Recover the amino acids of this structure.
């Protein structure tokens, strides 16, 4: 508990530092003044991406399913690499050319001359809806952490986790979120090396023998879903192109020349983190089987190993790693949601002439409001961390992924195509999850991950509608050419 208290103090200290450094204007509060060094931007992107699911959700899936769940990690690594390679440099340049856009809806509106604000409104609604769901997944992780490790009530864990995040995000803004993400990313990196390494050293039998004793299916790379299951798992990688809390880091890097460095740092971190999460689940399943340990909730295997195998001081550090993963993502999601509420609703529709001081205040109020909604959703204990994340990940990936990619690579894309693609992508995902249609008694999402049909449908809609409607203005195409030249 002492380790966690020290961690909380450190995070709040960073928030205070950032408050003094960069929150006097809206660009500083929401984008750090586009001045982040590549190391901070890369680890911030990784830490805000991985969240509690890298230490709880993915190990839990590996604990239950074995090697077949590895395809999720493989798809994510490929998607992250392509995101750094294709999206990062172009988005950094283009958002500055597009009237110095500081939010994703702001970029869409400026990129496609959205004079009626339809594109801005729809994209902001998608962000707020799916991020509230996404944030609740992190809050659930915090509730489970405090309940399983400290004997506190699940509800108390929700409020403690959210309270600390809200405080440093509220005051320090984007710089606080990015600096805390950097520290949290380092903690997660060490934890995901330490826990699987120590667990493996304590196994009595070869891993393959023990996993075969548990369930021979754990050793197969092809799960119950067959080829479709592999496609569904790997399609998680498609989501990277449309995650606002990740791609906004690319907008904040101090120069496009820093992108190769950021890519190398970010991908190295991610490879270690995903391998660590995979092996934590597999080695944890073997260790629990050999020692007769009953694991009621597979998503708590990292917690169990930390408490059983390590000295209390080290265990406290490892629990801080879980909290770091949770808090880094919650803070990023709160800030992006707050940015959309402030820049894309309040400033556009309520106070067009609002001062920077007023907008920063509204941004802070928005952080508090979104966090309360997330806590409310997290009271539903039946939802698993991975399922909450997967739904939100698919929503963003389908609604924004094709839109971001094509906006950066296809000059012919226009406003009508952008709006159609966003609506079709989000609607397809929601229908796939909640629609009344079933196949052999199974919901559509059980057949194939909803991001696949959503991404395909959105891409078709963008291309078809753009080609069927008028070409974009010369001003837009000129900026596109300017972006190409700058690269």
């Amino acid at each position: 508990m002492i380790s966690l208290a020290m961690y909380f103090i450190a995070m709040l200290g960073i928030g205070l530092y950032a408050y003094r450094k960069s929150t006097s204007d809206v660009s500083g509060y929401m984008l750090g003044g586009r001045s982040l060094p590549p190391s901070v931007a890369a680890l911030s992107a990784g830490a805000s991406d991985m969240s509690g699911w890298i230490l709880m959700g993915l190990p839990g899936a590996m604990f239950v399913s074995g090697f077949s769940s590895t395809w999720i990690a493989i798809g994510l690594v490929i998607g992250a690499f392509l995101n750094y390679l294709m999206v990062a440099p172009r988005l950094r340049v283009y958002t500055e050319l597009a009237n110095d856009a500081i939010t994703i809806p702001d970029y869409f509106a400026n990129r496609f001359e959205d004079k009626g604000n339809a594109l801005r409104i729809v994209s902001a609604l998608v962000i707020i809806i799916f991020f509230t769901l996404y944030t609740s997944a992190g809050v659930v992780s915090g509730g489970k952490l405090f309940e399983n490790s400290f004997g506190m009530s699940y509800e108390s864990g929700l409020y403690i986790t959210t309270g600390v995040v809200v405080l440093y995000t509220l005051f320090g803004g984007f710089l606080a979120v990015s600096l805390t993400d950097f520290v949290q990313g380092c903690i997660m990196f060490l934890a995901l090396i330490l826990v699987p390494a120590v667990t493996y050293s304590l196994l009595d039998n070869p891993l393959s023998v023990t996993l075969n004793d548990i369930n021979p299916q754990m050793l197969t790379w092809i799960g119950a879903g067959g080829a479709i299951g592999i496609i569904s798992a790997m399609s998680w990688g498609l989501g990277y192109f449309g995650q606002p809390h990740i791609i906004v880091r690319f907008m904040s890097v101090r120069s496009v020349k820093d992108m190769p460095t950021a890519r190398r740092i970010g991908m190295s971190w991610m490879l270690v983190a995903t391998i660590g999460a995979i092996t934590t689940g597999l080695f944890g399943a073997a260790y629990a089987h050999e020692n007769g340990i009953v694991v009621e909730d597979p998503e708590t295997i990292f917690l169990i190993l930390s408490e059983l195998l390590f000295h209390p001081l080290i265990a406290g550090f490892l629990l801080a790693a879980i909290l770091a993963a949770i808090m880094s993502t919650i803070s990023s999601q709160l800030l992006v949601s707050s940015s959309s509420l402030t820049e894309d609703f309040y400033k556009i529709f309520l106070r067009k002439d609002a001062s920077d001081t007023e907008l920063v205040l509204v941004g802070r109020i928005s952080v508090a409001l979104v966090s309360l909604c997330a806590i409310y959703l997290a009271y539903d204990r039946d939802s698993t961390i991975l399922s909450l994340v997967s739904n939100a990940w698919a929503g963003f990936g389908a609604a924004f992924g094709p839109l971001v990619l094509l906006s950066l690579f296809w000059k012919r894309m226009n406003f009508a195509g952008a709006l159609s693609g966003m609506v079709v992508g989000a609607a397809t995902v929601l229908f796939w999850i909640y629609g009344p249609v079933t196949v052999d008694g199974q919901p559509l999402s059980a057949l194939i991950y909803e991001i696949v049909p959503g991404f395909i449908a959105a891409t078709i809609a963008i291309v078809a509608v753009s080609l069927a409607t008028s070409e974009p203005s010369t001003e837009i195409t000129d900026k596109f050419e300017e972006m190409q030249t700058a690269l």
